[in-house]
Amino acid sequence: MNGxxxxxxxxxxxxxxxxxxxxxxxPPARRVIAQNLTTSAVCPALLLLAQGYGRPAYxxxxxxLALLGPVGTLVFARLLSGDLxxxxxxxxxxTWAAAALGLGVVVALCVATGPGRAVVKLLVIGALLIGGNxxxxxxxxxxxxxxxxx
Length: 150
What we know:
Elements: H1 3-24, H2 28-53, H3 57-79, H4 81-84, H5 92-113, H6 117-140
Helix pairs in contact: 1-2, 2-3, 2-5, 2-6, 3-6, 5-6
């Protein structure tokens, strides 16, 4: 076991436990936040595992998850908009913590990988992950002005 796999284990353990607690307890708003947290924890863990095992296919899975995870959160927020109206969750601290985690992992991997096409892919994944989480967090915490149901 190397440091990359240890870091992936810590990220999956912490993020997975928090997501499992969020899904298992509380109202639908907490469950939607937990779904977003799952994406925010699994995507950096896949990047760390790709570096630890030396398997670039895991980076492709992380790219797919970074693209589809926040979209799934927005779909759930739209479908559950009636249930979320009573008490919008305050997910900003969690959103920024997940964004900082994603940024830290992407920067560390960019430094370890060196210049090349892999760095461009990592930067795209980081932009999708951070931007998607910020947009999904905004949609969950009150939505955008002028848009009904989200």
